[in-house]
Write a structure and sequence with these properties.
DNA polymerase, domain 1, 6-stranded mixed sheet, 380 residues, alpha/beta, 52% helix
Length: 380
């Protein structure tokens, strides 16, 4: 497919016209460009759309009050929505706009069911369409306007070739008798709920090096972690770009009392100290002034006791998975993820109906491996 000049959608009126033009199409290719590298929290910066009628559009969420007119076509089961690796795209579209997506076709999932090891869109385009998508621009700041012609071309290439690519992948799946497997997996992905991400007050306890801190150090680290979050939101920059994790832990361990001492901490450059020195020293002082009873404790969770019978079943399933994956030409972790192995080993189903009802197993897995797995679980 030859490149199509982009049509920018920046006004509610243009968005309404676009939504109307998509009704009755057979397929719409969709991609998004979000930015969590240059902004905090991450923001949706661009939505690319291409229909089977050849039209290509760049929708600007930063210029529009909402994207509500697109809801109808996204929820229309007669219009196939084609994504590549849809997880992140769906997360933004659902969380920000509450969209429901039906009739999803994910080219990355299709590649998995074909047993391909190179799942990136670039490689699939080269293999199936002989298209070179050009240099990646995934690290660009997509919130900047105007986009350069190269950025526009890159963004459009992500959708212009998705419809013919999906057709080639579908043909290959049909030849292998696996099209229904993909349809079931895509429907499950489209139906997946995307709840808001709650703040984790204990995230600081999982930073590398925290195990070497005493309770006072943990108290200081907690205050520093909260302060870094505030500074990141204020600066619209990811927390790790305000101050690295290792630097945060080093500050909690050494607890400098003035700007000169701050400069001795790796990662506390002149620029960091000029910008944030007072805030960091304030957080350290707050941590040092906490009463003993208010200091956090590092609760060491005991390892769960796994019964020997459960371990035997899990080992048997992993052994079966390795052999079956070779036979079927599928990635072992995709054929039977570890979470399903753990579930089956802990509560082994005894009949086909119970196996099919295991959360996340899917009908295609139950049909493909049901008798073998049930027999294996009984013998193990």
């Amino acid at each position: 497919m030859s490149p199509t000049p982009p049509v920018w959608i920046r006004t509610p009126a243009d968005l309404a016209l676009l939504a109307a033009s998509l009704e009755g199409t057979a397929a719409v290719a969709i991609d998004t460009e979000a930015d969590s590298l240059h902004h905090y929290p991450g923001k949706l910066c661009l939505v690319q759309l291409a229909s089977d009628r050849g039209a290509a559009h760049l929708v600007d969420p930063l210029a529009l009050p909402d994207l509500a007119p697109l809801a109808r076509v996204l929820a229309d089961p007669s219009v196939v929505k084609i994504f590549h690796a849809a997880d992140n795209d769906l997360a933004y579209l659902k969380r920000l706009y509450g969209f429901s997506v039906l009739a999803l076709f994910d080219t990355a999932l299709a590649a998995r069911f074909l047993g391909l090891t190179a799942l990136g869109l670039d490689e699939l385009l080269r293999t199936y369409l002989g298209v070179d998508p050009g240099k990646s621009r995934q690290k660009d700041d997509w919130s900047r306007r105007p986009l350069s012609p190269d950025q526009e071309t890159y963004a459009l290439n992500d959708v212009l070739h998705l419809i013919p690519l999906s057709a080639r992948l579908r043909e290959a799946l049909q030849a292998m008798g696996r099209e229904a497997w993909l349809e079931e997996e895509c429907a499950a992905l489209a139906a997946l709920a995307v709840p808001p991400k709650p703040a984790d007050p204990d995230a600081y306890l999982r930073l590398k090096g925290v195990k070497d801190l005493d309770r006072r150090g943990l108290g200081v680290l907690r205050e520093l972690h909260v302060e870094r979050e505030r500074l990141a939101l204020e600066a619209d920059r990811p927390p790790f770009m305000v101050l690295g994790h290792e630097t945060l832990v080093a500050l909690a361990a050494r607890r400098p009392a003035d700007a000169a001492a701050l400069l001795q901490i790796p990662g506390c450059t002149d620029k960091v100290v000029r910008r944030h020195g007072a805030a960091l020293l304030g957080a350290i002082a707050r941590g040092l002034s906490l009463p003993e009873e208010a200091l956090p404790e590092r609760n060491r969770q005991p390892r769960p006791v796994v019964l020997a019978s459960v371990r035997r079943r899990a080992e048997a399933l992993r052994g079966w998975r390795s052999e079956a994956a070779k036979r079927l030409g599928l990635d072992p972790g995709f054929l039977l993820p570890q979470r399903l192995i753990d579930r089956l080993a802990a509560e082994p189903p005894v009949a086909a109906g119970a196996l099919a009802a295991v959360d996340g197993l899917r009908r295609w897995r139950a049909s493909l491996m049901g008798e073998e797995v049930l027999r294996l679980l009984r013998s193990a």
